[in-house]
Amino acid sequence: MSRRVNAYVAALLLIGTGSLLLLLPGLAQASSGGAALAGGGGLGAGAATPPPAPGTSTPSTSPVVVQPGNVIVSANGNGITIVTHSSAFLNNKLSFTGKVSPAAAGRVVEIERRGRETNWAWAPTTHGSVRRNGSFSAIWPTNHIGQFAIRAVVAGTLSARPHTAAASATLTVIVYRPAIATWYGPGFFGQRTACGEKLQRSTLGVANRTLKCGTPVSIYYRGHTIVVPVIDRGPYANGADWDLTEATATALGIADTVTIGAVSLPRT
User: Fold this and answer.
1) Per-residue pLDDT tens for 11-40?
2) Residue 150, burial from CB neighbour count under 10 angstroms (0-12, 13-18, 19+)
3) Average pLDDT of the segment spanning 211-216
4) How many other CB atoms sit within 10 Å of the CB of residue 214?
5) CATH 2.40.40.10 occupies which residues in the chain?
6) What's residue 165's pLDDT?
7) Over the range 34-54, which residues count as b (16 or more CB within 10 Å of their CB) and which as e?
8) Which of 132, 131, 167, 134 is nearest to 152 (CA)?
């Protein structure tokens, strides 16, 4: 085994009594009022020892930006309002609600998305009908991961769906893939990562086996998110897909092997 793998094994033996239990809580609480993650709840492991509070760090850690991960977002434009959650998990459900003029009662509201997965073109995602009071609702079974711009378009009938109608302003939604994550740092500080960066206690980043160095990755854990770059290769143990630096793990309150939500983002 590599030195990195040996370090993982040693860390696991120190943390537990031989095994770690991965737990999936029914609901993840967002910091903005405790809203549950859209699409079936948040993901995170029950740590054997209390993890540090999100956003805390060691004195040498650079300032980090940890955001509420499941806030309610809305957009309004051209007389159309659309409301949803900012985060969801793959193969779950994301609900949309909104309001248009009651004069549009009976017409179809098409929810469209645009992102890397749609080749940056607007794609039909789900739809609902306008009620007499002008309200509408729709549910998207989240079948793709990624960061998406979302808009609502008032169409005609289901058979016509003209796209020349007015559209709402856009909002942003991120759909995460559940994945197992470990963390590393002690024993490697001062060394160069596979991407050429000198690993320090304050280094924010993540290791991945395939993504290009520098690719931004959004990580969701227990109602909080952080965006960090790929800075290393791995992980190579514990069946993990991601390996967080100590600073990243500390910022999110991660102390053990856990299940997170993760997705790569387009470079800006």
Assistant:
1) 333 333 333 222 233 223 322 222 334 443
2) buried
3) 97
4) 12
5) 3-68+176-263
6) 67
7) ebbbbbbbbbbbebeeebbeb
8) 167
Instruction: Look up tokens 């959004």; give the residue.
Output: 218
Give per-residue pLDDT as tens, 129-169: 999 999 999 999 999 999 999 999 998 644 444 445 689 99
Write down the mean pLDDT value for the chain: 80
Domain boundaries for CATH 2.60.40.730 within the chain: 72-174
Interacting residues of 98 by C-beta distance below 8 A, sequence separation 6+:
80, 81, 82, 83, 109, 135, 136, 137, 152, 168
What's the average model confidence in pLDDT over 202-213? 97
d(CA 204, CA 163): 43
The CATH superfamily label for domain 3-68+176-263 reads RlpA-like domain (2.40.40.10)
Here the tokens at position 69 are 């991960």
C-alpha torsion sign, points 26, 219, 119, 111: positive
Fold of 72-174: Immunoglobulin-like (2.60.40)
The pTM of this model reads 0.77
Backbone torsions φ then ψ of 67, nearest 5 degrees: -110, 155
